[in-house]
Amino acid sequence: MIVAHAQSENELFFFRMATTCSDSNCEVFNLRETDDRHSEPTMWSLFDFALVKSLGLTHHSIVYEAKEISSGMTCAIKRLSKRDALRLNSHKRIERELRIYSNLSHPNIVQLYSWFHDDSSIYMVMEFCDISLSDLMETKYSGGIPSKLVAQIAKQLLSAISHLHSLNVLHRDLKPSNMYLSSVEGGVVKLGDFGSAVHTNPTDLRLSAQGTTPYLSPEVVKGIGHSFPSDIWAFGVCLHELITGGSIPFDGETPHQIYKQILNNEYQPPPQMDNSNSLYSIMIECMQKDPANRPRSIQIYERLNN
Q1: One domain for residues 253 and 114
Q2: Can you give the residue range of the structural domain that contains 80?
Q3: N or C: which terminal CB in the chain sees fewer CB atoms within 10 Å?
């Protein structure tokens, strides 16, 4: 059995850049903790895991399917290069991700078991999920996911989003490739990837541009900033994609073309649904141009549960 490191706020470890090794031209992180009662993030090292295969690669990280050797439990390991973090000046973003992620516990959020590091990398040990919703649409539901299943997926995602918002956390990168099923057959829906997540207040706007172009809200495109309604807009775009089996409402050959569509709210509602469908109504409400007119996550969740 995997024993996760305690994840209370007082027991969260974080790293800071300490120095650059001029002799070997290598960068070194000095990791320390917020609570003096502990000396290491976890007792794990990479030698405790067998890496099965690569699951995906980004600019900042690579994710592996892995097995914890002593228990045989399957997990996912996200490896972040310290050298790349320093080169891309993203070490503060990684620290923020660890801070936020370590304090999240919800049945519809991919669980972070713990994390550890060595001289070159930081490793996040996470719950393994069978498939992302984007891959599910590509392989099984290219013509659109059935309405009942979309409603079930939406309820679970909204439960996770409502939990984040209740903790004053913005996800800022909601999209089907960051949403998962724990099992292909009848699995639990899980929200993951908190690399863009940030703490905020309900009335605050986070001005730094984060997220993926087709899912950005009009106010983010305008440079006004992210807020809770920005997550709701992105959820509406995801809902459109789930209903249609992968069709993104705002699409173009260049980011400029997509920005123009978003600002003008130019998209075609899914032909698979009529106006009386509750999912259609929710999608339209989530994608209101004025953020003040969008419902809150908890309101949508309660509507889907009634």
Answers
A1: no
A2: 9-127
A3: C
Which of the residues 48, 130, 135, 173 is marked catalytic? 173
Please answer whether residues 241 and 218 qualify as being in contact, where contact means their C-beta atoms are separated by less than 8 angstroms.
Answer: no
Share of the chain above pLDDT 90, in %: 51
What pLDDT does residue 142 have? 81
**Which of the residues in the chain have pLDDT under 50?**
1-41
- Residue 2 belongs to a domain: no
pLDDT score recorded for residue 280: 87
Contacts of 76 by beta carbon, 8 Å cutoff, 6+ apart: 55, 63, 64, 65, 66, 110, 125, 126, 127, 128, 129
pLDDT of residue 8: 37
| Annotation marks residue 119 as catalytic | no
User: Do 115 and 181 lie in a common domain?
Assistant: no
What's the confidence (pLDDT) of residue 21?
31
pLDDT value of position 20: 33
Given this model, what pLDDT does residue 157 score?
Answer: 96
